[in-house]
Amino acid sequence: MLTTDPHDDDKFHEECGVFGVWNHADAAALTALGLHALQHRGQEASGIVSLAGGGTFHQHRGLGLVGDNFGDAKVMAGLPGRAAVGHNRYATTGETALRNVQPLYADFEFGGFAVGHNGNLTNAGVLRRALVKRGCLFQSSTDSEVFVHLIAISLYSTVLDRLIDALKQVQGAYSLVGLHNGALIGVRDPSGVRPLVLGSLANAAGAPTWILASETCALDIVGAEFVRDIDPGEIVVIDDSGLRSVKPFETQPSRFCIFEYIYFARPDSVMEGTGVYEARKRIGAELARESHVAADVVVPVPDSGVPAAMGYAAQAGVPYELGIIRNHYVGRTFIEPTDQIRHLGVKLKHSANRAMLDGKRVVLVDDSIVRGTTSRKIVEMVRQAGAAEVHMRISSPPTTHSCFYGIDTPSRRQLLAAQHDVAAMARLIGVDSLAFISLDGLYRALGQPGRNAAQPQFCDACFTGDYAIPLTDWPAESARELQVSK
Ligand code: SF4
Questions:
Q1: How many domains does the chain have?
Q2: Is the pTM of this model over 0.85?
Q3: What is the CATH number of the domain that holds 173?
Q4: Is 16 assigned a catalytic role?
């Protein structure tokens, strides 16, 4: 197939968004709206579990987009109750099958419990093998099910103590929303790699409606006020008596994913006090300070390169133009290509705006280069539209390592920057020059004096190989691949 599969766009992919509501008459409807705002974090499947009176849980999960799964009034009528949790899935572990769609739900001695997880556990394989040996029967192939079994076998009596017991055994990145008959629970892993925010809605009935969400854009869509980020290592328990915060883990340095600012998060979200859109513009400006070249026009690779290109153009004093137009209305697959038209694939999504490119020295701004396949095709398209020179500027440092903390990335062998230096990459992509923002420049754009090598302020492992959370599930052979040298 000539494809526009979003998985085939040569980008790192965020996977999974979570949302939770406590104390609202339309809890499931709010959750569907929140998941819709978080659609960029996962498009393969979505699910909602609601809690109605008497501790009855209702659930609906489906493959595909939120609108496809929750656009039907009958489906929504089947999700009654004043509390709900929801999840968007982009598979990193476990194949795409309905049994892997979250929130996962299980009946325990204490009643039902639903959980949705954004992130990736790095010791899930080891834990799973041990649990299977003890007789646990896994229903899915996702790493998230490990939480369910660890809670089930815990010897503690309260739900919170069982959850803490489970969390103390897992390693990795996780932002969780959980729901049991009595509370909505939100958790961020001790390094705070993935985001989770708290919001509230005034409620005529008195007590506020509480919202948990991966990003603030999901608070905005339901009209909720941003209250605060959940802290790394924090568990919030929300029930009818209010909100309680528990911090049961040893304090660890925060390692929030720096790539959220570069690409994953929606530009209108605010993460850890920093507006994503403004951050991307500052990254673009820093990129221009570091590596501007004489040019007639600055062109973003849409959509993700847009704010960085705006910042770049403003800093460089060069006109910003939409030299590439993105078609938003293409399905995942299109037509069966013959050899003669296979090369046209990229044009399904991107078209050159010849009037802005012909005879011009073009600076193309994109957020990252993964395999380099799409970059090469876009550069070729820009040249065919008459560009006199094409200079590519990238608003992230070279992605030399895979992510093991909840982002879908190719293996190191497939990462162009893991295999080639910048000059060789420029030749392969076919540009006149290529430059990436420096790691220190990226940190500066995010308000830091630079990267603190002794204690980095963010997770930046895909640029540095500095994995702060152990990669327990990756055996020696994989470790060698992790070490692949240029
Ligand atoms: Fe984010 Fe990269 Fe760290 Fe993964 S390795 S969490 S993509 S910064």
A1: 2
A2: yes
A3: 3.60.20.10
A4: yes
